[in-house]
Amino acid sequence: MSGGAGFDAATSRKVEALYLTPEVATQRFQVLKALELREGERVIDIGCGPGLLAHEMAASVGRDGCVCGIDISEDMLAISRERCAEQNWAKFQMAEATDLPHPDDSFDAAVSTQVYEYVADVPAALSELWRVTRPGGRVVIIDTDYGSLVIHTENQARTERVVQAWDDHFLHPGLPRILSRLLRDAGFIIRRRDVIPMFNPEYQDNSYGRRLFGMMASFAVGRNHISRQEADTWLAEFAELGRQGRFFFSLNRYLFVADKPDAG
Ligand SMILES: C[S@@+](CC[C@H](N)C(=O)[O-])C[C@H]1O[C@@H](n2cnc3c(N)ncnc32)[C@H](O)[C@@H]1O
User: Can you tell me the distance from the alpha carbon of 19 to that of 16, in angstroms, rounded to the nearest whole number?
Assistant: First the structure.
């Protein structure tokens, strides 16, 4: 997985499973609340992925509204289309975050969750976000700061190698730290910022931390001299820590709510 183009069919399904965990479902609830969508509104989902948020937004805006999802992964778009098959006011299209296929001022609201950390030119993407949002419209962005990862491990060196291999696939693993400035430079007025923790103090089946570790282990194989066997041993450490009641995982996502000021 490298950049958006790396979200092939298998990875897309893994992301879908990760994003169906209760932690990310809670995040979607927070995003929907922040968006304050009303019936009949038009909203764009930039990097819509498996369409979980698009599906919920389509229910909020109703058939008189419109949800436009864009993504650079055809496999992700296929999952989105399947998920929203009965909501024909939700449309999905292949496009780059830096080149949105919509006229100026098209949307009442725009959202992009867990996407800009993969985009090479974030200022260009924010400039596109600004362009397609109408004056008086609002935007909601979420990105993870991988510097906030706290894991209990008894083999720090091995864990650091796996985490390093994982971090290397993000173009901006610490984007939230600089996003306020980038949003202001693009012309937005920041209204709110919040931290959304992915927090698992126990080793549980359908938890974000456990699923993410599975993805990290598979991704690390062949990188940083990590073999499949070492990746499996790394994973097994957490299962054992879980059995002993000594598991700990915490990683922060950051929510930004901003407005495009009214013209004049
Ligand atoms: C981690 S997933 C997040 C999906 C979705 N936003 C969510 O939160 O459920 C990242 C998504 O961003 C897409 N993506 C990455 N780079 C992109 C780009 N430059 N333009 C558009 N989409 C991009 C990927 O294809 C992938 O579907």
Answer: 5
